[in-house]
Write a structure and sequence with these properties.
Two copies of one chain form a homodimer. By secondary structure, chain A is α/β, with parallel strands linked by helices. In chain A, β1, α1 and β2 form a beta-alpha-beta unit. In chain A, α9 runs antiparallel to α10. Chain A is globular, with a radius of gyration of 18 Å. The model of chain A has no long low-confidence stretch (mean pLDDT about 95).
Chain lengths: ~300, ~300
């Protein structure tokens, strides 16, 4: 694979058409706009509703991205699955597409599994993909997956696959955990899962952030990433955190999609797949008022739509 | 579909070959033996490691069952998926194969989802399968899926799809919940998820049980089902519960597979897919001692192997 991804990445939200199929054109437009904002593409993440997509749908979108000429060096697709043959299939496709890395959930159906079992899962995937270009970023999101990735597991994987295990996205929301990952492991790129921890992450020696709200606010988040040593870094951090917290008062994924819908006058963007539910009229009005209060827009996004 | 399934069903364990691929011949032999013991086939359940199988692997096994002439009227495959297109694909295949019903997990990645979103998920599947023969048994297993199926959701689904929503498997382990389901809904077949509740379930008016240990002890469990009004029913219940509890001291899925391996002199049966881990030598010795203490065997199972 190519140079290691750093900085700000967005778990790209997935638009759906009236039949709830992935809307490839709207998706590509959003990907292109994010790249124009210095934001990498962590497609097929939690905020992408990736686990609500079939394996075939994920492969089809990945192929569309390659055909559209999106830069693989800026892409980190989610390729996890509860079933290792599917994780192998998706990961192989990502490597062949030249992606910089993959972001891999643990198998998340069984709970309380052992580190031995988790190690065996990642090991099966790595051995079966069998490609030196593979770079795996582990995905620790215990509140959703309910299957954590322990520090001991990371140590064991790094020892067995030092060139392949490249880093982690820590969506625990627990700064002490993120800091421990940064401090304990060398040559291991730690991304925080929310921009609220971006300044702390950079000061501690982390790699950046992969955050839901980078779908709509990538420029401001990247500005902090690029200027984390500037005198006004704390003020920048406060500003992007305040905006995130305001958006997070509503259900995050439908809210992100509705913000894009509002900023591009395109309500089609509001659709989600079940079990998620799109925002209702009152929630959209609340969201509109929030955007107005922050004087928020998505510069150039309408033109990209 | 055919007559409603009642009685005892087994979430059929899935054997794997040396490359961790499903071992179709060993699987069919186990299915045939279960049918010979008056035990229905709830293939692709939690104990089947169904979520560790790809959609293609599940379809291939279902096809193998049909080609082998297994009676669809005795089959209730698990067809749930976090992605509704995959649930539609698997459910359609099950209906076309003449299965008596399907056992459907809720989408289990996102947590804390609303009943509106859950209703929308099942609704998409039912409408898109679009087949009057479809009979759905909901699958409530909150300790694993971490996404419960509420009584209110059941009521709403029954009202919208009275001919299609046929029943539920309650693996909550909470008898009060199972009883509430039986008492509240008419024409709704409630299966307890463990034989330890079988007698209570039958006395309350339930349909039977779908239980892990029916993989190895189907005859004794069916005996209680068939004789639940007999004078010695409570003693039968105590006996099968004691055996289950002894097995459950070890991790259930690897233990079930090792019991089959022990009873058929076939250690190949012991394999599991990660993130599960097969029993080690000490655990197998412990299991062997347990079987000996109970004087346990699987009558005719060796001949079926």
């Amino acid at each position: 694979m190519t140079e290691a991804p750093k900085g700000v990445l967005s778990p790209v939200v997935t638009p759906f058409d009236g039949d709830l199929k992935p809307d490839t054109e709207r998706w590509l437009a959003h990907c292109r706009w994010l790249l124009s904002q210095d934001c990498g593409l962590a497609i097929f993440g939690t905020n992408s509703e990736a686990n609500s997509l079939s394996v075939a749908e994920r492969r089809s979108l990945l192929e569309a991205a390659a055909q559209a000429g999106l830069d693989g060096a800026r892409m980190m697709p989610g390729t996890g699955s509860c079933a290792f043959p599917e994780a192998v299939e998706l990961t192989t496709a990502a490597v062949k597409a030249g992606c910089a890395g993959v972001l891999m959930l643990p198998p998340f159906y069984y709970k309380g599994v052992s580190d031995d079992g988790m190690f065996a899962f990642y090991s099966e995937v790595i051995e079966r993909v069998g490609d030196e270009r593979l770079r795996i970023y582990l995905y620790h999101i215990p509140l959703v997956a309910q299957v954590p990735i322990s520090l001991d597991l990371i140590a064991r994987l790094l020892k067995a696959y030092p060139g392949t295990i490249a880093g982690i996205k820590d969506s625990s929301g627990d700064w002490n955990n993120t800091r421990a990952m940064i401090e304990r492991f060398d040559g291991f790129d730690v991304f925080c899962g929310s921009e609220q921890f971006l300044l702390d992450t950079m000061r501690a020696g982390g790699a950046g952030c992969i955050s839901a709200t980078a779908n709509i606010n990538p420029h401001a988040i990247h500005d902090l990433y690029a200027n984390w040593q500037a005198a006004d870094a704390d003020a920048r951090q406060e500003a992007i955190t305040a905006f995130r917290m305001a958006i997070a008062k509503l259900p995050m994924i439908p809210a992100l999609k509705s913000v894009i819908g509002i900023c591009t006058d395109d309500p089609e963007w509001g659709r989600v797949r079940p079990p998620l539910v799109r925002l209702d009229a009152a929630q959209i009005a609340e969201l509109g008022a929030t955007l107005e209060r922050f004087g928020f827009d998505m510069p150039g996004r309408r033109e990209a739509a």
